[in-house]
Design goal:
membrane; transmembrane; about 0% strand; mainly alpha; Chromate_transpt
Length: about 190
């Protein structure tokens, strides 16, 4: 395992800015990129903690990319880290959208841009599938039977019965909280 690098605000800003600059296709695409950068490369966050932070970011209102950046920034450098990561996350889309708005007519009719967007859609789908498999792998490695059952039931509820995603998030969050609290209590009883 490589040595953990010192957390600096400049490095955090440049890392998050770069991730945000090249994240196309929605918030979930940034999750594996953040894991690769902050867990695998910089070793600032442990993998399990990263998944927990992503779960918190996902269950909070707003864009997951911004929420994830806020939580990671806060975890690493407190309020200042959160503010630095917010700026680093929102600047690239702001810059890109400003440029596109000035050149909108050229982008709208460009076949090259259209083909590039179709190619990015395929890449985004692959990245999202990777995130799902990593989360499933985490549940299996931890032998979290309740998590696996909740995941399967949530999938069925959403895809078959069209249960509103907000209801699923609240219910699954409550089940996860109760499960974690009972597991912690059982662990403490075994130790004590």
């Amino acid at each position: 395992m490589e040595k953990k690098q010192e957390v600096s605000l400049i490095k955090m800003f440049t890392s998050t800015f770069t991730l945000s600059m090249f994240t196309f296709g929605g918030g979930f695409v940034i999750v594996p990129l953040m894991k690769k950068k902050f867990v695998d490369e910089l070793h600032w966050v442990e993998e399990k903690e990263m998944m927990d932070l992503v779960a918190i970011a996902q269950s909070s209102p707003g864009a997951i990319a911004v929420n994830g950046s806020i939580i990671i920034g806060y975890r690493l450098k407190g309020i200042v880290g959160a503010l630095v990561n917010i700026l680093a996350t929102v600047l690239p889309p702001l810059i890109i959208l400003t440029i596109i708005s000035y050149c909108y007519d050229a982008f709208r009719s460009s076949a090259v841009v259209s083909f590039a967007m179709r190619g990015m859609q395929a890449a985004v789908a692959a990245v999202i599938v990777d995130v799902v498999f990593n989360m499933i792998k985490g549940l299996i490695v931890e032998r979290n039977r309740v998590g696996i059952v909740v995941m399967i039931l949530a999938l069925i509820a959403n895809s078959v019965f069209k249960v509103n995603i907000l209801i699923l998030i609240v219910v699954c969050g409550a089940i996860g909280t109760v499960n974690t609290m009972s597991r912690e209590k059982a662990r403490k009883e075994r130790i004590g």
